[in-house]
Amino acid sequence: MPLRKLAHLTLLALGLLTALAVFFVAQLRFNYNFNDFYPAGDPDLDYYEQYAGRFGNDNDYVLLGLEAPAGQTVFESRFLTKVDSLTRFIRARRHVTQVSSPTTASNPVVEGLGVFNVPYLHPQEPERRAQDSALVYRTPGLVGNLISRDARAVTILFQTSPNLSKPPGDSLLAAVRTELQRQGIPENEYHLAGKMVAQSVFVDRLQMELLVFMSLSVLLVTGLLWLTFRTWWGVVLPLVVVLGAILWGLGVMSAFGVSIDLMTALLPVMLFVVGMSDTIHIITRYVTELGYGASKRDSLLIALKESGFGSGLSALTTSIGFFTLMTSTIRPIYNFGLFTGIAVLLTFALSFTLLPAMLVLLRKPQLRIPRQEGHSWDGVLGRMFRTVLARRHWVVAISAVVLGLSVASASRIRINSALLDDLSKNDPVKLDFRFFERQFAGVRPFELDLKPGPGRTIYDLQVLRQTEQIENYLQRDYGLNFVASPVTLIKSVRKALNGGLLDEYRLPDSEAELQRLLRKVKLFRKKPEFRALALPDGSEGRLTGRMPDVGSIRADQLNAGLRRFLRTSVDSTVLQTRLTGSANLIDKNNENLTLNMITGMSIDIVMVTLIVLLLFRSVRMTVVVLIPNLVPILIVAGVMGAAGVSMKVSTSIIFTIAFGIAVDDTIHFISKLKLVLLQEPSLFKAVRKTYLMAGKAVIVTSLILVGGFSTLIFSSFDGTFYVGLLIGLTLLFGVVAELTLLPILILWFYRHKPKEIRQPVPALGG
Q1: Most buried in the list 233, 277, 353, 662, measured by CB within 10 Å?
Q2: For residue 576, how many C-alpha atoms fall within 13 Å in the half-sphere facing its CB?
Q3: What's the confidence (pLDDT) of residue 157?
Q4: What secondary structure, in 3-state letters, does 324-351 show?
Q5: Where does the SSD domain start and stop, copy by copy (predicted)?
Q6: Does pTM top 0.90 for this prediction?
Q7: Are 683 and 750 in contact (CB under 8 A)?
Q8: Hey, which bits of 389-485 come out as E strands?
């Protein structure tokens, strides 16, 4: 079949597939679900899901903090009237299931057969302000929870429907903000926090940042391609191929029902810069052959033949680098690894179908600077090669010193994460969350499941006393600023039965008194706080609380101390406990991060080792290839340690991805060396010729990769920032190692065994 006809058929088939991809991409949605970051398949996740089914999720709430005007306290009548109005407004909103507010907080009193709720605050009676404020500060559970310790701010806490999605959540938040504006409350006097708030902000920013990163990447890559090839087709064709691959990759992701989240949002940018490698190697070789005077057909065939093997291997190693992320128990990382790996293979397929088809249909280009008449890369690369070999002892010595310092620094890396890790320190959302940590109980939830021993209920006196003992420990040593449990219920009922007196807020002294209290508990069972803390039959209870977000390292220490206390101080025949909750699940990710990273890197290294062994059948050559690619990884680990960057969910993917991408150029180099050795018996001349042939493509692709990843440093998400910065640095150090260490190591390792390299030539060439 004529080449032009084959090219037309190829373009038609690819066009139809692209139209199908566009159909699926049109259905793609942005989403950020906090629950997706729980460790999938973990027994603790199954346990929490069952627990949440009985008591509700611990993070389906929004905190609205209101600061009193300057010079006033929260007990001013005018301010409390606004708080009460907002409370009523929020309570009437759809998807709000319960509201706790200083103006609705009441002191229940039982008289006869009825329960009377006496409010703590009376906004319409200013003369009672001193009496009300004194009572508030003496009542447990109000100060630090609904009212700040300095009486300068209040919190309205509203529970929402379970796992509320973004659209209704955004509508609810918009309605609250509109009402705040209508009441004349300026933005600097109110604060919002909670899972729903973070979810809304994250998705909106993802959409904006994806647009910004893609625009910056296109501009940057276009400029670099123009400087490299100085022809319109040298710019347009790679862009068409890679943008087509991005469409295909997103189409596949959409077809599997996966949304764009914090991790998969990196796919288009990642693919845009990584996918350029194959097209640049093909076009560089194509232009080189044209410059040497070869025909258009021969130039294209040579470029495809010489680049195909190396590009196929590099696509394989890069995709494996992403596929190894599927070892992660965190669903967003799993999806990112799976679909980016698939997209890398699709890019390879398009590079060797779409690109050749377009080159066939284009007229033979007129090169502006023919190789015979002007400056070429050969001179620059030739001088660089000579310099590297002349200073080889210095190159190795400096590399060894830098490597030693990096390993020492890398040992300082710690695994640590917080609930809002991906937001920068001065982000407005993070500042709002810190407001609640500074003025109130905090935003990190705490959950402890309570199960009474055989033959007991959660209201058994011994069970209640053991629970109270745990509460005291949590407030004294663990750091909980707010705590509630079945003990809270019994103490509240006792107080209500004794005229609402604060001195009566304690557990009963005897079993007989407890039984009298339990007969009255049915008066309160319909109250939502009762349903949230104990099952109706008393077979299970919940101890819940809030505290500052101390980070996973500190949380692990606190949990270890709590487990010791529970093991030594709580009688398991009376009460059995189990730590659970969303924060506990997020902390559990840290246990898997190191294992996942080591597993991913190990798979990568094994695959590269196998590829080199198949190519050269030499263990020595495997070592030669691995060293220039592991050195940059260790240097960047040293940079992380020196800069105090913690290992967390977002940064744990860096090393695996960086190694998978960085090894591409090495694969291209050694695959070209393998071909050159078939015609060139001298190892030195073969390495030099390969250096000159591959050097330009290695430098150009590395610049594009580094530049493309550098666009991510403009992200408002810390995780994305560090992915861009650290992978960019790895690739930068990688190209330096590629052009300095690799040729030195090849020549050092093989100068004594030329026969092993030359011997297969007659058989392969015959």
Answers
A1: 277
A2: 9
A3: 92
A4: HHHHCCCHHHHHHHHHHHHHHHHHHHHH
A5: 239-361
A6: no
A7: yes
A8: 444-452, 482-484
